[in-house]
Amino acid sequence: MSDPDTGRPIVAELGRPETPEETWLRKDTARRSRKEHQTAFNLVLALIASLGIVLFLVAVVARPDSTVDRDVDYRQVAAQADVPGVTLAAPALPESWSSNRADYTDKTADGVDIWTVGFLTPDKQYIGLQQGIRANPTWVANQLGQHRATGTRSIGGTKWTVYDRRDEGQDAGNQAYSLVGTFGSDTIVLVGTANDASFRTVASAVAKQLAP
């Protein structure tokens, strides 16, 4: 229905035609409402996209964790390493043992080349082997967190210096127990969470391979 005087449509809610101001206000309100809905919709899309990115990163980043228990042929890596004049420690261990790391690093901050092997015991404890090539006292102290020795032991005919921190509980971390032995100009540091028997197994095998 239109107003006979103005010819403009009568608004049912008002019972009369809209004024120009009311028409502008109604259209402006409608524009604002559409803009707010569009903004909310864009926000939802952005959240969905962000969630997708997070899930993707979790899937990609989490994947390397599955290689923590990977089996590395450390003896083969040692045999293929090009380190003239140096015998890299690659002790022969029982088949129930495994290795998850084997690598050689040239010149650390202490000026020492390092051969590193990570061992997993049959009961899933860890022993890390680090061989400092022509190691110096600074390097040895840094590997042991500057802690003092707690004794010595003879294993495999070799004297090993003991660093026993197991009474510190979780504060000791992966350095709960350590053995340090010298073979010529190189130093072997064994450190980890395994029991005495497991450390003896590795230390004996290292001594058998490296001792003159």
Query: H/E order of the elements?
Result: EEHHEEEHEEEEH
For the largest beta-sheet, the strand count, sense and barrel status come to: 7 strands, antiparallel
Radius of gyration over alpha carbons? Answer: 35 Å
Total beta-strand segments: 9
- Helical coverage, percent range: 25-40%
Strand order of the largest sheet: 3-4-5-9-8-7-6
Number of helices: 4
Shape: elongated
Low-pLDDT sequence parts: 56-68
* Amino-to-carboxy terminus distance: 112 Å
How would you portray this structure in words?
This protein is α+β, with helices and mostly antiparallel strands. Helix content is 34%, strand content 25%. The protein has helices at 20-62, 74-80, 137-143, 196-210; strands at residues 10-11, 16-17, 98-105, 113-120, 126-133, 151-155, 158-164, 177-183, 186-192. A seven-stranded antiparallel sheet has the order 3-4-5-9-8-7-6, with helices on both faces. It has a two-stranded antiparallel ribbon with strand order 1-2. The longest helix is centred in the first third of the chain and has 43 residues, at 20-62. It is elongated and about 110 Å long. It starts with 9 loop residues before the first strand and ends with a helix.
